[in-house]
Amino acid sequence: MTAYLWKGVLIGLLFGLPAGAVGALTVQRTLRYGPKAGLLTGLGSSAADCFYASLGALGLTFISDFLLQYKAAIYLVGGGLILFLGIGLLCRKEDTPGQEGKDVGRWRSFFSSFAIGITNPAAILTFLFAFSWFGLSGGLAFGEGALLVFGVFLGTYLWWGALTVAASFAKKKTNTIEPAQMNRLFGVILCLLGAVVWLRLIL
């Protein structure tokens, strides 16, 4: 049984490399609000990955087929969400460093990244490919599937933890970044990433 756990961890490490909008948010929030905000942001993305991994591991094809059928609309929402977050950073006024440590900030950190991750139905195909590569077919027993999905969570969250630690280390080394400049930089990055999502739909 533990073999499924370790295979899940390996899959999470191989296919959960932090990138894109959630990676930018993790770095921005770690630099601005501290490691707790970065870890909560990564936690939301890992939770979304677990949802899609569970569809592949437990063979819930009726759900995955539905999501893939309407993936264009889901991508449209996801791209809009990323643009919204980017514009919000560009328009944000000066805030206090401890603001994200409040309860509202914690929920926002988690759910914003979860929403971005869950609006990427192509993740289903990624995990199906990964499971097939490792000889794991869909429709596993519940215990086996649960261990596999938990392993995926651990693997992906190790990446987010490493990214948060790296951003925290960079923050200690360079304390000269102005918050307003940081917001503008990551706001532009998020807007570009959101535009890329929509451009892919058009093409």
UniProtKB/TrEMBL annotation:
Principal place of residence: membrane
Location in or out of the cell: Cell membrane
Sample GO molecular function, one term: amino acid transmembrane transporter activity
Ribosomal protein listed as a keyword: no
Keywords from the UniProt entry: Cell membrane, Membrane, Transmembrane, Transmembrane helix
InterPro entries documented for this protein: LeuE-type
Topology within the bilayer: Multi-pass membrane protein
Gene Ontology CC: one annotated term: plasma membrane
Transmembrane segments: 6-27, 39-60, 72-91, 111-134, 146-170, 182-202
PANTHER family per UniProt: ARGININE EXPORTER PROTEIN ARGO (PTHR30086), ARGININE EXPORTER PROTEIN ARGO-RELATED (PTHR30086:SF20)
Protein name: Lysine transporter LysE
Origin species: Anaerotruncus colihominis
